[in-house]
Fold these 3 entries.
Entry 1:
Amino acid sequence: MKVNVNWQEDVHFTAETGSGFKVEIDGSQQLGPRPMELILAGLGGCTSYDVVGILKKARQDVVSCVAHIDADRADTVPAVFTEIRVHFVVTGRGLKESHVARAVKLSAEEYCSASLMLERGGVNIVHSYEIIEVA
């Protein structure tokens, strides 16, 4: 896996992934997200990928999965994350609570590389979920 990050000006950078995608990064939030926001987005994408995949393998009829993520940072430099809360809102038809709970747990404890890496680095990550039934 490879990413190149090129400085544009001031606190604006452009990242280009090995797969050819570009992301604008901006510390002032005028041209793109801040770097630490991208870490949370990466965590959200990683764990959501797991949860949806596990639920689909369990033949659950998922129509939507949204991960709401908020985090606390240290007050001193380096302002690392101290706690991250990931709350899934899983919407579907006839979803079994036990399957959703299992999917969230497996992602948190076994599959999500981003989550495991952050936790091993000392970040407390709390996972929760809710299920919304649709007709």
Note: Residues 35-57 form the longest helix (23 residues).
Entry 2:
Amino acid sequence: MKIDRLISIIIVLLRRERVQAKELAEMFGVSVRTILRDVDTINLGGIPIITYQGVNGGISIAEGYRLDKSVLSAGDMATLISTLKGVAASIPDSRFDILAEKLKNPLSTSQLELLDLKSRQMIIDLSPWGTNEQLKGKITLLRQAIENYREIEFAYIDAAGTRSIRQVEPYALLLKGQSWYLFAWCLLRQDFRLFKLIRIKNLQLVNITYQPREVPMEQDYFENQWQETARPVELDLLFDKEMENVVEECFGGDIMRQDDGRIMVKVCLPENNWLYGYLLSFGGGMEVVNPPHIRSILAAIAEKIYKTYSS
């Protein structure tokens, strides 16, 4: 990907005084002409690049920009490498591994040793516990469709259990809350939608290419998409004091302690089958105080569970 190459070129130039265009071309498997175009792009992005002619010529970041080279410390490099390794563990694509190696390429032996030490101090792994080859297969096919602007078709089961067949124009993969989502234009709904990958079945490429639309990619947009999957409901949840570590893990440290030591949490979540299962996952250590209709629904589900396992 071009953006990967541009970032890599910048990092190489930050670490080295001067690099020949031919060496960069060999490093990234492209032509010298492509490297020179990349240099122009970097220049336009605000990073001043100078090209020197002659036997000892090459490409370098302008001298006056040298102060900013200290931004990428050994810790910064370790963070980049750890993040790339974490992405590579979740997405089956050798390009992430190759990019990590390219980032390390210009470093000296002593720098590599320090980088290795720093990298082992922070490990990022975005893949789920256990192996999930089916999920990786979906991600591989979806990335192929996104890169080639190919429509896809699949059976989908939404949070309410409704089944439908969808044909969509895929635009992006989103990792949110330890779950993968597909962001796509749905031909059925004539709008952008988020589809949870675990609910996508019988995924297949369609022999139709599409013209890319203008895509709203702001972070707030994805938050609103998630909220719109169902009607949001304000919840008052009361946790036993022994559940403090669970509360902090799930809702953060902003908690309200009651006189008896129990913990009150106020949160707004979309109401659907996922919500009922999520609330029940806290077992007897949590009580829904409000709203009353959620209490009734959970009571009915709990009664059905009791009858199933007590018979």
Note: Residues 292-310 form the longest helix (19 residues).
Entry 3:
Amino acid sequence: MRKFDEQSTLSLYEKGLITENQFEEVKAYRNLNIFSVNAELKLFLYLSVLLFTSGIGILIYENIDTIGHIAILSILLLVIAVCFYYCFKNSKGFQKAETTFEHPVLEYLVLLANILTCIFIGYLQFQYKPFGEHYGLATLVPTIVSFFCAYYFDNKSVLTIAITGLAAYIGLSVTPQDLLNGNDFYASDSLSYSAVMLGVLLIVWTIYSNRISLKTHFSLIFLTFALHIISIAAISNLLHHYVLIWLIFAGVLIGSTFYFYKVSYEFKAMSIYVFMIVYGYVGINIVIFRIFENVDFSNIWELFVFLLPAYFVASIVVFIKLIKNFHKEITE
């Protein structure tokens, strides 16, 4: 890594982008061997929030009979109120552009307050049912609170909670495991259409936000969720027994792949580019299988056995080459 940095600095000097004095100052600074622990500290803060909220959940579960529901809800509400009061007091208020707290700890207090709010509303609904049998409202309310906090305090972690809550409200689970196992897209056409519509909604909101310059740095988060939700819903339905259905979702996947191909270059987003290729590759193979599923290949199956390893090796080589070319294009 050090050698790479030195070569990069030398390249800048040779191109005339920095002066000789600046080149020497950069070399002298790097020779001090100073390194930042900012990322490590933020990671520990994030883990602290997760451990704290997990600990509260375990405490409630193990002592529910001795503490009492009212006491637990009161303590939760008090902690939430203190956290939000401190965050509102020290925030810069809502701004359309990217903003940050003066102290990074406040960012994680917002996350803590938001998670505890979700726990509070969920626990309140489970125990006392203030929303009656409308359990969707118990999901929608914390989702609205999360979106408000995400935009007001400019917090990306809270934004992911908000999008997850919105997906849960329409019946989707958007954790990686649940996306693959917990959402029965194949059995429920309405769920598949809802997933695609949610993905489109996230894309439309991203486009609108960029036009009015509203938290444009949130775009990558919205687009990442949209890519995964649309692609997985489409791929799941490529195995549908109705030809028209899987043809429709094949078209959806083609359109999604093309759009996110353009987006990956626009935002110079390696993550979107990689997953776009993976989903497209899986979809193409399923479509090819569906086209030839009724063809009898019994006479040439030995040829397929011989060509299959070569096909996968060639796919890996092409994949690596595409990634290298993309990285080269976005860094030049």
Note: DSSP finds 14 helices and no strands in the chain.
